[in-house]
Amino acid sequence: MSSASSVAVGEQPLTRVKARSPWLETLRRISLYTVVRVIFLFITVVISVYLTILIANMGGYVDKMQEGEIAERVAMRIMADPVMRQLPVEKRNQIMEEMVQVERKRLGLDTPFFVRSLLYLRNALTLNLGHSQKMTSDSGSRQVRLILLERLPSTLVLFATSNLLLFFMSVFIALMLSRTYGSFFDRLIIALSPTSAAPGWFYGIFLILIFAGLLGILPFGGMVDAPPPPTPLEYALSLLKHLILPVSALLISTGAVSIYNWRTFFLIYSSEDYVEMAKAKGLPSRMIERRYILRPTMPTIVTSFALTLLNLWGGAIILETVFNWPGLGRLYYQAIGLVDTPVIVAETVIYAYLLAITVFMLDFVYALIDPRVKVGEGAKQ
Amino acid sequence: MATSERLLQIESLYLYFRTTKGVVQAVDGINLELGRNEAIVIIGESGCGKTSLARAILRLLPRNVHKYTGKVFLGDLNVMELSEEEFRQHIRWMRISMVPQAAMNALNPVLRVGDQVAEPAIIHGGLTKREALEQAIKMFRMVGVPEDFASRYAFELSGGMRQRVAIAMALITSPELVVLDEPTSALDVLTQANIMNMLKSIKWDLGVSYILITHDISTSSELADRVAVMYAGQIVEVGDALRFFQSPLHPYSRKLMNSVPRLRVDMEPEFIVGQPPSLIFPPKGCRFAERCPQRFGRCAEDPPIIAQNGRQVKCWLYA
Prior knowledge:
Helix content of chain B: 25-40%
Low-confidence stretches of chain B: none
Mean pLDDT of chain A: 83
Largest sheet of chain A: none
Number of helices of chain A: 15
CATH architecture of the domain at 1-82 and 225-286 in chain B: 3-Layer(aba) Sandwich
CATH topology of the largest domain in chain A: MetI-like fold
Largest sheet of chain B: 8 strands, mixed
Order of helices and strands of chain B: EEEHEEHEHHHHEHEHEEHHEE
CATH class of the largest domain in chain A: Mainly Alpha
Number of domains of chain A: 2
Strand content of chain B: 15-25%
Low-confidence stretches of chain A: 1-19, 377-381
Oligomer: heterodimer
């Protein structure tokens, strides 16, 4: 008796709130959820970007390298100047010291690294990517934005082709294999999946040796023929020819294992009770596949697809180097080699933002495609 | 009831599975008959092959089938001779439907339950989506599910409601035979009784036949016209329910009945000594002999099925 009454008391305020204005309540809940989510994702981005700034600057050690370079440059200039050479040593040292100080001030090296790291952070977060230290774009600009934009299309072409091909091919083939468990092709894919033990560029080297070196039917590398073809059609064909080897290298390395993963995934989901029930109901196998296997697994497939899209941006350092592909991966590699901090930080910042936006969007896509997911705390009712 | 028209006849049905340890003889030469509008209860311990028998009848086979032979007559049609596609079109849900063991997982989590119930009526009955949904709502009314639940998802329903939805789904195409695989095992006692009563009244209203697979003797006694006892992949006793519950013949059936606690009789429930035999290496002769208190010399040979006033028992005691 007493427990029954306490339940009734406990439920009362809840029903009152619901009865007041369900729409407003939903709106409030969703906006609260969105704000909290955005704040958390932003904090994640800030932390990752700040860590990148610290690492790319080697915790301030890059400053010392720069100061050394300034001192060297100033000394060289004074040595090269006949007027300066006439001056007494003390006077000359004094001028040298002044010039170093001016240069340090110009580059902002006179403020402590910690303060500057926060400034860098602010610039990075506001996408004020600034100027590179050493690298230039092909048109000679030092703006990091231009350097990145110049490389972006070539990376996108290569990785959009290979990753989208890989994704749709593996989901499609995996679905077919999951129908014929234990068949010859099923076993073949399992047997081939260890090819993923070696990365794409490893196969790339052999592909270049065979198809460019021995057979001479495909180019060694690069994105288009040396004088770029004049008409758009010829340009596209030339691009296609150059794409074959790097795309094949990536597919050989990850194709089998990706099909294998998806096939296992579909097999697990096709042994769910409701799939068996659908079979007992006598639904055609096409319908079972669409409504009982693909629909329930849609969230996972969409997540994987979103992460695939995200990967298009990063490029691949070694693969691009092996194929001499003018993409972002090679840019990253060169920037690290030259310790060009602004370029490294800029690439990371953009990647972090893209990741955060993707994760944020996925939350809402989930709520659309999976009725079990309700945005906010609504799932409890 | 015994004179009613025959609906289902199973003749020496075998279903063996291949496993890494050996071949599991889950359904080992089963013979069974079922009349129209009759309910047969198949009782047995866990792992005796009850669910495999249901799967063999429904042709819901896993990937590791080793042997699947026998005859299953539905009316005069041997459904074992049909191709998979013929079986799907003409038998599945048209003539035989099922209510699964755990309705929790038997409903697709991302489809509205109304649509799932309506599906067979669209596929087999040729109804439009709207007509099928109306039909589904009619079934909902019959099994006591509120109409507006049709637009809900499985996770928004309680266990009892889900089970009712599964029953509505099984009946929508008005099949002749419904296989109920432990339909109430995951529910509380009160809900169990409700569902059993509902199944009983549906049986009278629609004239369907049931194969009820259970290990819960007390709840099944409500519904049963006949009882079959399964032990180690074989049926050891078949008879009409009334006489079975009063005086089971097979020593195993007796032991089983004595293990059920009773309300009005002052009797300690007993248990059966030992464990059910392995279905990979079943014992020679009578499979229950090892645990049987009444075994004697002949039990080393496989006992035949012996008719005893309209009941059948597989035991040397009645030879």
